Amino acid sequence: MPSDPFKFKQAKEISRKDILLSVAREPDTGRLFVGSSDSSVHVVDLAAEKAEPVALEGHSGYVTGVAIAGTFVVSGAYDGKLIWRDRKTLKAERTHKAHDKWIRAVEASPDGKLIASVADDMVCRVWEVASGKMKYELRGHELMTPSHFHSMLYACAFSTDGAFLATGDKVGHIVVWDLASGKPIKTVESTGMYTWDPRARIHSIGGIRSLAFSPDNSVLAVGGMGKVGNIDHLEGKARLELFDWRAEKSTKFVEGDKCKGLITKLAFHPKGDWLVGAGGDSKGSLIFFDTVAGKTLREDTVPMHVHRFVTSESADRLYLVGHNKISIWELSA
């Protein structure tokens, strides 16, 4: 990512009728694969004079995960299915009933050989992209919260070398898995991102919504939302926590000064000294964090609640998707 987070500006905005929940970008292009609330994956070519989306059907629920891996685009949805599509022909090559409950995220390993999917059945499954075979079934999260409600498994992330995978759930429990063996090797807790109301609403909100390893894989960044007073609203402050995960120790946490709501996606600068997160409450937010000093560098409002974003290869561009919009941010001169 670029060295100066203060030089990002919104360059383009595309209005939509649907809610965009996930996004992947074709390498070296402006071609996006966007998961939608209308149960389709939409192909949007931002290089075209008029970006008319092409809808790829096949799911029967919100498409909450899209990843490009090898020759495939793999999508996951609330219907529990994973669909492999050929990147060139866009035809569905295989479909798996991958989970018993809503899929929350789909991520590709850095080398494109593996796909990880997490869902509300509290299982992470790791798949071989080329064959479609399940490599691991990772069970390290409780089905129920301590207050005896169903938990949720929101997020996963591969390390930059592809050796590890992190998974995070609603109550703030995070497991780091060794992908050579499929075994859990470390756990950390980020309980400050979970709010349980035992009196008024007898309900909970929050959870681990985003994970990212630093470029050298020494730090695991965790995104979510701080403690909430009224759990019917995303009124908590945007919250980032950093872990020395090998030592199983929290090293820093930062809360937004201006932005409230969830951090639904995180991405590190290549040098590891800062990272960017996006999400929001009823409004969208884009926050740049100084990971060394443990503070916010910049907080911006964006034109919609953001569910996911991706960056360009040179990291001079951010592609944000969310409620009724695509927003592209570029590094200005």
Q: Give the class from helix and strand content and strand pairing.
A: mainly beta
The sequence of SSEs as H and E is EEEEEEEEEEEEEEEEEEEEEEEEEEEE
For the secondary structure, the number of strands is: 28
In the CATH hierarchy, what is the superfamily? YVTN repeat-like/Quinoprotein amine dehydrogenase
Distance between the termini: 15 Å
How many helices? The count is: 0
Q: How would you characterize the largest beta sheet?
A: 6 strands, antiparallel
Oligomer: single chain
Query: Which stretches of 5+ consecutive residues score pLDDT under 50?
Result: none
The percentage helix is: under 10%
Structure overview:
The protein is an all-beta fold and 333 residues long. The protein has a single domain (5-16, 103-331), classed as Methylamine Dehydrogenase, Chain H (7 Propeller), CATH 2.130.10.10. Helix content is 0%, strand content 58%. The protein has strands at residues 8-25, 31-36, 41-45, 54-56, 63-69, 72-77, 81-86, 92-97, 103-108, 114-119, 124-128, 134-138, 153-158, 164-169, 173-178, 183-189, 194-197, 203-206, 210-213, 219-225, 237-244, 249-260, 262-268, 274-280, 284-290, 295-302, 306-311, 317-331. The strands form seven sheets. It has a six-stranded antiparallel beta sheet with strand order 4-3-2-1-28-27, with no helix packed on it. The chain has a four-stranded antiparallel beta sheet with strand order 5-6-7-8, with no helix packed on it. The protein is globular, with a radius of gyration of 18 Å. It starts with 7 loop residues before the first strand and ends with a strand.
